[in-house]
Each structure stands twice: as structure tokens, then as C-alpha cells.
Amino acid sequence: MSRPDPNRDQRGCPKCGHEETEVDEISTSGSGLSKMFDVQNRQFTVISCTHCGYSELYKGQSSGNAIDIFLG
């Protein structure tokens, strides 16, 4: 496992460093009865880099907080 470069700017996409993002919401079903009846009771915010497409899912957070975490 490589060590992080202390001279690298930690802001931006963790993969490419680009700072523009796209925010989407997705819903998924859980397990058990919700899966059997296709009840989509789990909500996620998806933050994606507009340059390389790298995406992260955040559960239970508003999109503003998730963008702050994604960008550093």
C-alpha cells in the first residue's frame, strides 16, 4: 500500500483531482420483504466527478455535506 504524498493538494476528486461534480439521488431496495416486494426504502446521494466519472455513495447525508466530503 502506498503512502499519500504530503505535497499533493487533497482538494478535488480522489482519483483525478478535478473539482467539478454532479449530484444525483438513487433509491434501492434492502433485503427480505422490501426486496421481495421491490420497495425502494434506501436513499443515497451520489457524487460523481464530471471529468473521470469516479463516484461515491453517501447514505443519510444531504448533498451539500456529501460534496464537502468528496472534494476534501
TrEMBL record:
InterPro entries: DUF2082_NA-bd_Znr. Residues 1-20 have a biased composition (Basic and acidic residues). Residues 1-32 are annotated as: Disordered. It comes from the Archaea. This is Nucleic acid-binding protein. It comes from Halovenus carboxidivorans. The lineage of its organism: Archaea, Methanobacteriati, Methanobacteriota, Stenosarchaea group, Halobacteria.
